[in-house]
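Hi support team,

I'm opening this ticket because the web form for multi-chain structure prediction keeps timing out on my end. I have pasted the exact lines I submitted so you can reproduce it. The total is 1312 residues across three entries, so I didn't expect it to be a heavy job. Is there a limit I'm missing, or should I split the entries? Thanks in advance, R.K.
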Amino acid sequence: MATAVHLDGITKRFPGVIANDDVDLSVERGTVHALLGENGAGKTTLMNVLYGLYHPTEGRVVIDDEERTFESPRDAIDAGVGMIHQHFMLVDPMTVTENITLGNEPTKWGNLAVDRDAAREAVVELSEKYGFDVDPDARVEDISVGEQQRVEILKALYRGADILILDEPTAVLTPQEVEELFDVFEELTEQGKTIIFISHKLGEAMRAADDITVLRDGKNVGTVAAEETTREDLANLMVGREVLLDIEKPPTETGETVLSVSDLAVDDDRGVRAVNDVSFDVKAGEVFGIAGVDGNGQSQLIEAVTGLRKLKRGSIVFDGEDVTKRPRRERIESGMAYIPEDRQERGLVMDFDLVENAILGSQHSPEFESNGRIDWESTRGHAEDIIEKYDVRPPNPEAISESLSGGNQQKFIVGREFERDPSLVVAAHPTRGVDVGSIEFIHEQLLELRSRGVAILLISSKLDEVQGLSDRLGVMYEGDIIDVVDPTDTTEEELGLLMAGQHPDEHDDAPTPDVDGVATGGENR
Amino acid sequence: MSAGDRARDVLARLVDASATERILISLASLVLAIAVGTVLILVAGRMTTCSAQSAVYYFNVGFCYDPVLVFDRLFLGALGDPFRGGWSPDGQFSIAMRETTLLIFTGLSVAMAFRAGIFNIGTQGQMIVGGLAAALGTLWASPFLSGTVGTLVLVPFGILVGAVFGGLYGMIPGLLKAYAEANEVITTIMLNFIAGGVTLYLVSDVFKDPNSPANQTVPLPDYAQFPAVLFGSRQDFSLYALLFGVVMLFALYYVLEHTSFGYDVRTSGIQPEAAEYGGVDAAKTIVSSFALSGALGGVAGALYVTMVIGKFQAGVPAYGFDGITVSILAGNNPLGVGFAALLFGVLKSGTTVVQFATDVPPQLVGVLRGLIILFVAMPEFFRLIGRRLLPEEDKSRAVATDGGERIADSRASSDGPSDGGVSGGEDE
Amino acid sequence: MSEENTTTLFGRDLGGFSSRAPAVAVAVGGLLAIFLFGLIFPESIAGTLTDILTSEGTLSSALRLSVPIALAALGGIFAEKSGVINIGLEGLLIISAFTAIYVTDITGGVWVGFAGGVVASVLLALLFAVVVIEFRADQIIAGLAVWLIALGLAPFASQVIYGRPNSPSVDTPGTITIPVLSDIPFFGALFDASPTVYLMFLAVGLSWYVLNRTTFGRWVRASGENPKALDTAGVNVSRIRYAAVLLSGVLAGMGGAALSLDLGQFTGNGPTMVNGKGFIAIVAYLFGNYNPVGAFFSTLLFAGLDAMQTVLQLQGIGLPRQLIRIIPFVMVIIVLAFVGRTRIPAAAGEHYDTGDDNR
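Hello R.K., no limit was hit. The queue was backed up. Here is the completed structure from your submission:
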């Protein structure tokens, strides 16, 4: 077999960071190659180099035995490389055909008009060739995410791609769509295409790839054939050390019900039902975790609970009071803390300094405001306290939030919310993008709150985190909490199955579970 | 914290890096506009004809217009020539102050809205409505009072009425934006036309002064107008009004920076999602910001009526639009509005001086105004020049903007469990 | 800081317009109601209104009033569809209105003057494009600046050249009368009009075609909806935006030149003879949901109201002139508030960076 892609000693430096460090990678023609690694391991950077988005600081890119220098993606496209980004590059109000042919429209009358029939025909032909089921005349905004992904793949194929790079292609897909995608992979490789896909999920890589290359801290730590390896080996390669995320969780007494959600139905931004009649309680001194593949309604659920999204149905009782119709501000004031999913959109005002951000949400609380006037001196003290206790760097309250690294932004938000003296903490991915030391600290603080009788609603895509911290664990799938389990006597496999929408006892007659949903931080078996 | 520390702290906050840059950009824009204006004057001076004696010569080329003279008149003449003997606060200087006073209010009106993330092009309309309301309200109340007592009551009353009606008129686009998601740029432009049309109808018909051919109300009695101090009463300027304006500059600064309302306003202005997260009621903030903005515009209208023309007359000069210019030049900072209003007050006063002293068309000032705004709108241009001039800075900027943490982070945070991409985020 | 503020602010929601169908339904319904009422009671005000509505003179003057607005609106569509909100259309109209008269005056050729007006508008549009695309200026503020500059520059130039803000009279393009067709009642006005009216019809049709049927039009739309998608498809987003903004300069320039040449004079007092037409044009294309044909009809609606207002006044109808004049503005607000919204291009108002590290 011929080598389709050969990356030779690729190093990519950014100011202060080495994203790729002397990485070699060889991909055989007609195979599926998985690029596996933790968040921040340098996978996407490496692929951006291959796609011409970045110049490598050092190293060579060889395509079909020919060394190439890509000035821009245009050159990569010309060399037969196509990339499907995690965020689809599609023009929503345009049709499937218009999107696929964008930039390379067939024309007639000497370029005076787009030949729409020819374009449509080309798209139909292409999708038939690879067995894709897409409606060439549908508007992209009207089709499902899985279909949009197929449009992206067709777009690359239309431009003559022989090598397809997919960045985290399964992150947004339902398990069925993931299966369909892997079928597409097979179809494509049978026709001689080469596929490289980025993933941080072991199970997926094992299931779909012929070969797996593991990146860690920007280095290639090994390439193995999928058939000859085990999950354990891969996990060791990825993490490279025993990850001591053993969470010691002292038993606590649970108290009264703090949060009671019943029959909650919520729509997403597009008006599609995202949460379906969900009910659960969280008691004082308890961590109620919600596990699930991203995009199964968790975001909408917590936004409804915290007052950022309108409900379609159902009720929310908080501390014995029905807060269903209460605005966000009243929920904050009655003791609901919230670590939001998106720290740069919601959690912090990026142009404000830390002093100003320290009172986001409590700008009307008597602690910092009297008669409409904000007491900036005590606010500043408060910011300094958070910075010190949560080790926010640089320890400068006047630093503009935007100038902080993501991990430090997160620590500041966590600190601010934890110091609110809440009776309920809604924590969405509280340790995302945070270094290991801080993860442990945040976990400790969370458990400390729990022991003080605070109720905690935890959502995380890191399975080890929700499993380790939660007293009870709900699994969310397609807008439903399909089961609530005791995390201590449930295995990861069982959880994985639940997250794919199957109950473990149905295992035998179900297709192979492939969505392990296991964030890589936690391969600590 | 001692008072000195605090003062230094305030100063540091005022003149932080971005504020310094702002000020530099505003100054550079002014200089650049004057430079382009100079070229324009010279070119125009070549296009027109004049006698050889009256021409000025630069580099042996004769020009009919002399830019030095023009800018001398525009800035110094506008202030009544403070560096020549016999300067008096009456005359041109007081006109500059009068214009400054009005521009302070319209500038604050626009700045207030801007800080809430709202583009209020409707200050002009709010000013017109406030002005007419102030005139009618004062006319209604004036028979009940007279003399000094009349002034003490009627002037504040007129301002109050102007503020209330300006505020109510400002609330219309606010409500439309908050509850019907109607874009305020469009609605306020429409409301300007409507305010102009309706008030024109009212003063040409219902409230028309029967003794005048012009479309105007009957004049306010003297005791219902702003008293002049220090300055001659002919100048239509009152120091009290200017002081009131200066107080309002600081008041709005205080409201924005030191109150929870101001915090809500600023937060929704720059990051509405974060404001929502922080419990700010977006709709309420929009409506109240718009009302406050409109009220400031209304005060400008009231001042125009009670201080400048002593009645309401159709065809109010475009102070509202000038307010946009003032606010943009000031970076929407209330204290900056003071300086920008002074600059444009001088320019407006200078317009008439230029007209008298030179043959250069006074519309030049309008061009300068446009140029200043254009340059202020493109800070990137000045950064580019700055980088050329200071290659050292180039490097540090490259670090800050290139690749690095922000990109990596925004990906990591918005994409969930994605590869950190450039992977700058995890390097603590 | 402020520049970022305003970017987010306009990036956030310059939304707020109605989809075309209900708006048109309301307008057409209203007109029909008046029409029917007028037919039944010819002596009533509605009867007079019907007379006016169906008079050839109304259509003819509505068409004439439409020309600058419709052409500027077409220009606005191209710019905004590509992601650049061009609020400076008013300024482009002003500068071209003056230049067209000036060039006609010195050359004696009406169409040479027309071309001169277009060139002036394109140059100003180029300045706007450079400032917005190259130097990443806030589009709204830069657009305002373009308006203010032209608002000062045109009367300034007139004053320098003619010694007063109003120009002397020059030749007009006259009218083209198509025999037979121009005798058709009412619609005859369509065939007895200034060449600029025909030019407008041509421009409306061509604009629709370019936007919907050519690759360029498709790239313009993609550039305003998802520039990154266009970029990764190998098309240079900046180049498309430059082209679109310059095209808006061409179209607005035609509008401004037509405005002044049809009257044979430039008037530069106060808000100049353009007097808000550029802003009405923005409303017109939003009303028309970015469709050139829709924009044309909403322009015709506004211009028709304006024309009616003049006729009404001549006939001495009761309603005060000043109040009739504000009807279109009130209508815009009502439609904005009570009828849905137009979807504006997703990336309109936002600067686009390629975001790679190769430059």
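A quick check on our side: Residues 147-180 of chain B form the longest helix (34 residues). Let us know if the file doesn't open in your viewer.
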